[in-house]
Specification:
The protein is mainly alpha-helical and 304 residues long. The chain folds into 2 domains: 156 residues, Tetracycline Repressor, domain 2, CATH 1.10.357; 135 residues. Helices cover 65% and strands 0% of the residues. The longest helix is centred in the N-terminal third of the chain and has 30 residues. It is globular, with a radius of gyration of 21 Å. The N and C termini lie far apart (72 Å). The N terminus is likely disordered.
């Protein structure tokens, strides 16, 4: 019997570590690639397949971003009570392994668009990845700018998905998307700083790190949350005015309910640190979103 050398257990990345690294739970954000078609009233058109391919490409691209960002943030994440469990910070994956996963995911994202003949979407995906690379390499050091870059990713998803199905999104839609993303981002920052300061800890976010604690403050973030909530409502009202259907204005009622509830949660607890889970963890937010979706869908598609 020939001798077979035993492979080291850490020679290959663990599957669970790779799964946590690419964050599949965050792929729901790429549903914004369908926003252009949905708000245009043509979500179920023959070109929807192009929007699906765009969303898949952004899933791979966002995973590439998460992977390289975890490598850059690993030293600071090890000091954070929650983020120290991330695979690179915890040692489940080496930096080299994480960067390899990032590279494969990034190349796959562009390959999907190329194979689906969506060359017009490629520049928007490139801008998305470039913006996030800038964020990881230092722009996250700048308060407000850091959240602005994250919010721009949602706008880029809307634009990319719209370009894929040959739709020109309205400025009101893009403005509402950006304002809502800013709202969620500032709410998350507010929850982070309130919790960590309450525990007497520094934050792993560079913009709220030890040595620069005054650049974000709870009153400042409260003001930003209120301002972006108001801007979201104004932009959505502007969008409604372009549709010429009185029924669509009823969708503002659950939207305002949801915004009010979100501000209450920002003040009360740490649920908003994971905004993607709010729909499942808070029944009022879930109900408001469901009511909005029903009223809005009926108002857009009842004559289709």
């Amino acid at each position: 019997m020939s001798y077979q050398p035993r492979r080291r257990r850490d020679q290959f990345p663990k599957v669970s570590g790779v799964v946590r690294l690419v964050r599949p739970t965050q792929w729901t954000k790429n549903a914004f690639c369908f926003a252009g078609g949905f708000f245009h009233g043509s979500l179920f058109s023959a070109e929807t397949g192009s929007a699906i391919a765009t969303a898949v490409a952004f899933c791979f691209a966002s995973s590439a971003v998460y992977a390289w960002n975890d490598v850059i943030d690993a030293p600071r994440d090890r000091l954070h009570p929650l983020k120290r469990r991330r695979p690179v910070a915890a040692g489940a994956l080496s930096e080299r392994q994480a960067l390899s996963v990032s590279g494969i995911a990034g190349v796959t994202a562009f390959a999907v668009l190329h194979l689906c003949e969506l060359s017009t979407v490629i520049p928007w995906l490139a801008v998305y990845m470039a913006a996030n690379l800038g964020y990881s390499l230092g722009l996250k050091l700048l308060p407000v700018i850091d959240v602005g870059i994250i919010a721009s990713g949602f706008v880029l998803r809307v634009i990319a998905g719209s370009v894929a199905v040959n739709i020109v999104p309205t400025y009101w839609l893009l403005g509402c998307t950006y304002a809502l993303a800013l709202l969620l981002g500032f709410g998350k920052r507010r929850s982070e700083i309130a919790r960590l300061h309450g525990q007497g800890l520094g934050d792993s976010r560079s913009a709220i790190a030890v040595g620069r604690p005054t650049q974000y403050s709870v009153p400042m973030l409260d003001g930003l949350v209120i301002g972006t909530a108001g801007l979201s409502a104004i932009c959505f009202a502007g969008y409604c005015s372009t549709r010429g259907d009185a029924l669509i204005y009823l969708s503002m009622v659950p939207m305002l309910l949801g915004l009010s509830r979100y501000f209450r949660l920002v003040q009360r607890d740490n649920l908003v640190e994971t905004p993607e889970m709010l729909v499942f963890r808070d029944p009022v937010i879930g109900l408001a979103l469901a009511m909005w979706a029903v009223v809005f869908t009926v108002s857009i598609y009842h004559n289709a």
